[in-house]
Amino acid sequence: MDDVGVDTTTTRSRDFWEGRYRAAAQDGTSLWGAGPNGWIAEQVGRLALDPGLALDLGAGEGRNTRWLAERGWRVIATDFAPAAVEGIRAATAGLAVDAVVADATAWTAPERADLAIVCYLQLPAESLAAAIARAAESLAPGGVLLGIWHDREDLARGLGGTMTPAIRTTQEETAAAAGAAGLVVELSDRRDRETPAGLACDCLIVARKP
Ligand SMILES: C[S@@+](CC[C@H](N)C(=O)[O-])C[C@H]1O[C@@H](n2cnc3c(N)ncnc32)[C@H](O)[C@@H]1O
Asked: Which domains does the chain show, CATH number per domain?
């Protein structure tokens, strides 16, 4: 996923995202494409998780939500932009999806979940730690958090022009936040991803609630 937004703020506000989703809906375009994030799909397969309740936090247009729901998962998808949530509802009609307007730094699920996905939810460190802590609280024992973010390394590679350093993160920071939230980090890594501008870098975690 290439993030093409022009960002002049240190963080990305709800109004910023609401405007982007409203504009995309008017143009009939998609910001993130139809398929799931490749790494998320790969990890759900690798972990051979039995479909249960999944959370998709900062779900955007719901590409990961839809993919999971089509594979038998019940999904609660949240985003703080109401236009995103409207789009998720339209894109997942008929599937076992509950789409909710919620701030990932403050929301916990009404029932404990088997899987929580955090996919390119780029927040300043303190907010990101809060979102990971809320995700951890929402998991049942044995539940898994899958997180993927744009790594701060992109700034060094010259690919960081569209996002500010404050909302970039690293595998060390995300793993530390997951550990502080009481999760056991099973995988903490970085990996390259091809983009038209060159190789971008993502950081990733797989963490489990004991
Ligand atoms: C880069 S998009 C990724 C969307 C989706 N996860 C995907 O990968 O297709 C980031 C999303 O996070 C949402 N977001 C940002 N901050 C949030 C917050 N504090 N709580 C909930 N959603 C948030 C934005 O509205 C946006 O939809």
From this structure: 31-208 (3.40.50.150)
Residue nearest to atom 10 of ligand 1 (CA): 121
Stretch 74-84: mean pLDDT: 97
Residue 63: exposure state from Cβ atoms within 10 A (0-12, 13-18, ≥19) = buried
Query: How many Å lie between the centroid of ligand 1 and the Cα of residue 1?
Result: 13
63 lines ligand 1 (CB under 6 A): yes
Instruction: Report the separation in Å between the CA atom of 119 and the middle of ligand 1, taken as the mean of its atom positions.
Output: 8
- pLDDT confidence band for 72 (50 / 70 / 90): very high
More confident residue, 42 or 4: 42
